[in-house]
Amino acid sequence: MNAPLDSGMNMGSQPITAPQSADCKTSTPVIQREEGQRDVFCGLTSIVWLHRKIPDAFFLVIGSRTCAHLLQSAAGVMIFAEPRFATAILGERDLAGMADAHEEIDRVVAELVNRRPDIKMLFLVGSCPSEVIKLDLDNAADRLNRSHENVRVLSFSGSGIETTFTEGEDACLKTLVEACPEADANAEPNLLIVGCLADIIEDQMRRTFHACGVKRLDFLPSKSTSELPAIGPNTRILLAQPYLGETLTALNVRGAQHFPALFPMGAEGTRAWFAAGLAAMDQQDQIDHPMLKAAYDRARYSLEKARQELDGKSIFFFPDSQLEIPLARFLSQELGMTLKEVSSPYIHQQIMQSELQLLPSDVELREGQDLEAQSDRCVASSPDITVCGLGLANPLEARGLTTKWSIELVFTPIQGFEQACDLANLFVRPLDRRTRLAV
User: Fold this and answer.
1) pTM assigned to the model
2) Whether 388 contacts 406, CB under 8 Å
3) Averaged pLDDT, 267-296
4) Taking a C-beta distance cutoff of 8 angstroms, is the pair 59, 125 a contact?
């Protein structure tokens, strides 16, 4: 194993019925399960935003040169830039079982910790190669914790065999939950917002909740690994991202209570999200707080121009990030777009319950992917905008479609009232580009 290479790097469908709510006035759409060839990034990609969000942590991928090149390309970081992630490259001897990979991991970690004493938490990240040769990184993390007292070592899988690219964050946060301290059973209730958010969005949310009377507020991941939130039966969970099913399960095991809500995308989604958080902390009467109401009114006003551009336009979602359903709800409900098809890699019905109830009941809604069949459906439906992964954009553009990269919706701050207009404009720009190119 080489030293760390720093790298800023047609099986048909089966219908199932989405959950019903007693308060829902219209039927929810039917979800079609689809299986076959898929086109997604692996969970290693999540390190690109995770390492920025947790500045005193380091992510060591146990993988191949392909893993290193992926991270360096995705993050746009040069080798000499001292990023907070790297790849310990598995060589032919490691893969053939001719070398003790665990001894090599111990050696590489020792070199890394000596070189970077600022590291407070080290994540060993599994990849496709390490999964194939059955490297036990959980045991490796336990062993390294006994050897390095000043660094907490954890492990999770970012393998493309097991995860799509946003599920890498889910796997990381699930592991992080296990490292969080136990809350006192008699502690006052606290609101825990779960999911990586841009710092500016986190600050906006914190100010708004504090103004509305919610004082005990934590975020996971926190900005420092030394300030992990305590979790227990009095912890109230509000998800900020829709792809955190495993993390939610780990929190539930710790006794925390989940409050389902729309996700904070657009004016209506953000208002409903804040309403759920306030209700969780028995502050529901603060939903009309002047600060919250002013932000909501600004967001609605900011969306008017984008609605003029997008009203009546059609959109098709390929499955990629698990953001597809909240985005479809926002575009349909607040901007008047027509949904040709909405597909997601996985639909967690408990998490998505509120979102599903606001989709048009006749929308084509699919879980999973049969790439060839879906590409044919997309071209046949001729949508105004197609949201897809990077690998599909050029082929679809060559067939006359206007595309939007779904990964841009993960890297761009889109949550909250102040970002509602920015989110809408991400869908206006492809249409504007098409108009300019046609001149």
Assistant:
1) 0.90
2) yes
3) 96
4) yes
